[in-house]
Amino acid sequence: MTMSLIEQTEQAGVVTLTLNRPEALNALNTDLIAELGSVLAALEAHAGLRGVVLTGAGEKAFVAGADIAEMRDKTPEQARYFASQALTVLKRLETLPVPTVALVNGYALGGGCELALACDWAIATDNAFFAQPEVGLGIIPGFGGTQRLPRRVGPAMALDLITTGRRIDANEALRIGLVNRVIALDERDATIAELTKQFSRNGPNAMRAAKQAVHDGQDQDLDSALALETSLFALGFAGEEQREGMSAFLEKRKAAF
Ligand code: CAA
């Protein structure tokens, strides 16, 4: 496998992954999914990692979906394998220990929307469009859309999108909580720079613990989840990071994490 479908840059521990398969608007085929899996496996082992931004090359598409040409002739068994491979990679993305942000530039359709949903949160450029158009192709979402979309926007809105297949623009995505912010397309680099600045000045272990608390708490009842928070809060006082952060505040200087 040639490692060429994903560009990777790093600044102060924040890695930007740019999906780059322009001839198919970055559609997710087996090779791209496998390469994403390999890239994420390497990032899991990156001790200095502080954040990940995922975006699409060019100005037109984040990801135009799973690759329809590749899917058309699949048997049910092959379709199951294709979806399970992708789900494993998206789970790997979701459970990266650092904050992950989808920077959605242009089309995020089907598997593209599902990829964005596997990130912790999302920013859309003002030319972005989102949809789960699978029913128009005679299938249902298969990369987690029927589960992560309702958890993000609620079941009624998710079923509105999934059963109509309609496209929504960046502002509607913002309104329903699918994305957190909308930026102008030409603010993409500045936005990545700003996120890099923010992630790199925060306590790296604190960011990891915060992500763990939110993610692991989601599937628990409130009391168990609050107990988890307390444990992780207390654990934060076990290392150097908390002492440095609080000393820096009291000494009116920047923390050196
Ligand atoms: N799979 C394979 N190829 C794709 C693709 C996809 N999902 N999306 C775009 N492409 C290809 C087109 O076939 C075209 O290739 P050729 O130049 O060889 O013809 C090239 O990318 C450029 O696309 P268009 O000419 O269609 O560009 P456009 O500007 O006219 O339209 C678009 C852009 C609206 C995104 C349109 O390409 C489109 O509707 N794409 C398909 C979107 C879609 O249905 N995605 C869901 C896929 S199913 C899925 O994702 C299932 C799941 O949950 C796992």
Distance between the termini: 37 Å
Mean pLDDT: 97
Q: Which class of secondary structure composition applies to the elements?
A: alpha/beta
Rg is 19 Å
Order of helices and strands: EEHEEHHEEHEEHHEHEHHHH
- Approximate strand percentage: 15-25%
Annotation, overall tally of beta strands? 10
SS summary, helix count: 11
- Most strands sheet: 6 strands, mixed
Tell me the strand order in the biggest sheet: 1-2-3-5-7-10
Verbal overview:
The structure is a single chain. This protein has helices at residues 30-44, 68-71, 76-94, 111-117, 145-153, 155-164, 170-175, 188-201, 204-218, 222-235, 240-250, and strands at 6-11, 14-19, 51-56, 61-63, 100-104, 107-109, 121-125, 129-131, 168-169, 181-183. The protein is of the alpha/beta class. It has a six-stranded mixed sheet with strand order 1-2-3-5-7-10, with helices on both faces. β2 (14-19), α1 and β3 form a beta-alpha-beta unit. The radius of gyration is 19 Å and the shape is globular. The mean pLDDT is 97. The protein binds acetoacetyl-coenzyme A.
